[in-house]
């Protein structure tokens, strides 16, 4: 899942991003509304965590612009305001969910994952194909009943392959969804990750390389 954090409190924004990366999400961070509009003009995110009180361009205006452009991301709006009326106003602008500050990090993660499920075609809560069983909630993977221990990136890559339900997933899409913007686009990290993932899943091989197109499970 690709997430954009839009929060002007840098310490908070960076802490949220670090925590979400620990949850195996690909996270980008910007610190004002103008940056948010620029970033979303060329990147499709699954979920945008949007602070309402932003400098340069107010969070309400960012939310309105995203709705007008029909950006595919689901929007989780953050605010320090406790007034229910303000929350209603935010939702009426196009936000999909609202979370007041201060919040519990576990609740933030749960809301982001719920919104991410709504932004994609429905998939079973447990993903399974060719003897590989992945549980996104418990963060576990089994192959023919055997527990497979994966790194966060290996888990994310395997999850994308399973979600494709037999379709081909390009290396570019894997880079966009499993890594963040700081990765060198010419890196061979997808190929390296795929090699270790294949080794851990064992024989017979279940991940196929489709020449010139990508990978499928």
From TrEMBL:
Which keywords does this chain's UniProt record carry?
DNA-binding, Phosphoprotein
InterPro entries with a match to the protein in the record: CheY-like_superfamily, OmpR/PhoB-type_DNA-bd, Sig_transdc_resp-reg_receiver, WalR-like, WH-like_DNA-bd_sf
Name it: Response regulator
Q: Which residues carry this modification: 4-aspartylphosphate?
A: 51
Give the UniProt entry's GO cellular component terms: cytosol; protein-DNA complex
The entry's DNA-binding region feature spans: 124-217
Q: Which residues form the OmpR/PhoB-type domain?
A: 124-217
The record ties this protein, via PANTHER family, to: REGULATOR OF RPOS, TRANSCRIPTIONAL REGULATORY PROTEIN CUTR
Its source organism is: Actinomadura rayongensis
> Mind listing the GO biological process terms from this record?
regulation of DNA-templated transcription
Molecular function GO terms recorded: phosphorelay response regulator activity; transcription cis-regulatory region binding
Domain Response regulatory, first and last residues per copy: 2-116
- Classification via CDD domains: trans_reg_C (cd00383)
Output the superkingdom of the source species.
Bacteria
């Amino acid at each position: 899942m690709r997430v954009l954090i839009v929060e002007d409190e840098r310490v908070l924004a960076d802490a949220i991003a670090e925590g979400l990366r620990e949850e195996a999400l690909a996270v980008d961070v910007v610190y004002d509304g103008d940056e948010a509009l620029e970033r979303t003009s060329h990147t499709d995110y699954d979920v945008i965590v949007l602070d309402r009180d932003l400098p340069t361009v107010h969070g309400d205006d960012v939310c309105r612009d995203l709705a007008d452009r029909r950006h595919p991301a689901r929007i989780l709006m953050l605010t320090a305001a406790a007034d229910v009326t303000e929350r209603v106003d935010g939702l009426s602008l196009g936000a999909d969910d609202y979370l007041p500050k201060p919040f519990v990090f576990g609740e933030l993660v749960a809301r982001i994952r719920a919104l991410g499920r709504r932004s994609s075609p429905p998939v079973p809560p447990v993903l399974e194909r060719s003897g590989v069983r992945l549980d996104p909630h418990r963060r576990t993977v089994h192959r023919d009943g055997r527990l497979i221990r994966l790194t966060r990136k290996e888990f994310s890559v395997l999850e994308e392959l399973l979600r494709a339900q037999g379709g081909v997933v390009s290396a570019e899409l894997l880079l966009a969804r499993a890594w963040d913007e700081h990765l060198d686009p010419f890196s061979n990290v997808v190929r390296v990750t795929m090699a270790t993932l294949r080794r851990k899943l064992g024989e017979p091989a279940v991940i196929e390389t489709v020449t010139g197109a990508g990978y499928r499970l």
